[in-house]
Amino acid sequence: MKLTGPPRRHFASDNYSGICPEAWAALAEANSDHAISYGDDAWTQKASDLIREVFETHCEVFFVFNGTAANSLSLASLCQPYHSVLCQELAHIETAECGAPEFFANGSKVLLLPGAHGKIDPATIQRAVSKRTDIHYPKPHVLSLTQATEVGTVYSVDELRAVTAAARHHGLRVHMDGARFANAVSALSVTPAEITWKAGVDVLCFGGTKNGIAVGEAVVFFNLEAAREFDYRCKQGGQLASKMRFLSAPWVGMLRDGAWLRHAHHSNAMAQRLAAGLANLPGVRIAHPVDTNAVFADLPQPAVAALHDRGWKFYTNVGGWEEARFMCSWDTTPEDVDKFVADLRAIVTPPAVPQES
Ligand SMILES: *Cc1c(COP(=O)(O)O)cnc(C)c1O
Fold it and tell me: Are 75 and 162 found together in one domain?
């Protein structure tokens, strides 16, 4: 059975792409020898040390299989079951994790905040925590924000500080879903420290998969107290890999020479190219600022179908948004983008009316 055709890259998700060369090479290196299991190996040690270097601080690091587990388990470590977690209404923890945060936190409720372009407006935090302060309502205890957001925007350093300051003011802990954290760092040209612990983030779920790793996210605790016994939580949650080095080695490959930022920079640049290509097409409207590797656009309905007919894969109705979503990956090429734009242009441009001569 043939499972692969001629190479074709899509814009459906940044998890459609394969494994980047740096992560692949590190996997091969890790595969050349025996190693201690369950994370007591040199690769896991090295990957954790590299993450501490990247963040310029001591932090506790855990490698898990996916983002849902990273978010759910880290939120659970910040919450008692009678607590609630505030997040933007499009947040992955609300729209795309099948209730896992509530499940792993044994009942902590996720409460939704409105806000433009996927971001939390600090004023809504004040409203949410003061709406009810009685014992009959789950006590707000954590603010979860996503950087880059589900719609590809980023909180600027000032916006982030305003949100985390409001959270701190009300005694909330701060969780950051960083499934596309690398894209945010690249977009903002900041140090990772500046938009995490220096801005009051207690725990970051640092995404690897969408940036070129095969499998895995790193849970990075800046609040060391919150990391206590997190290893037990991972094990009970089915997230302790026995051959841990195959989760951690790719991080060494990504971090040791800066590949993680190069790939993010590239996927962001491809989204800029795509947005520029779509900007002036008739009937096409870009829906959110293109800060990272996502372009959200309203397209005429027939154009969506026509693009699908031409074999392009992308989503139009996942995660609470209505627009078409186009994600660029570490391996998206300028030619991929141009080919897609040319196809859409051909679809939406009315044919010239033949002139009598
Ligand atoms: C992809 C993604 C995740 C992780 O999802 P998994 O499929 O569980 O790995 C988490 N948060 C956001 C914002 C994402 O886009």
Answer: yes
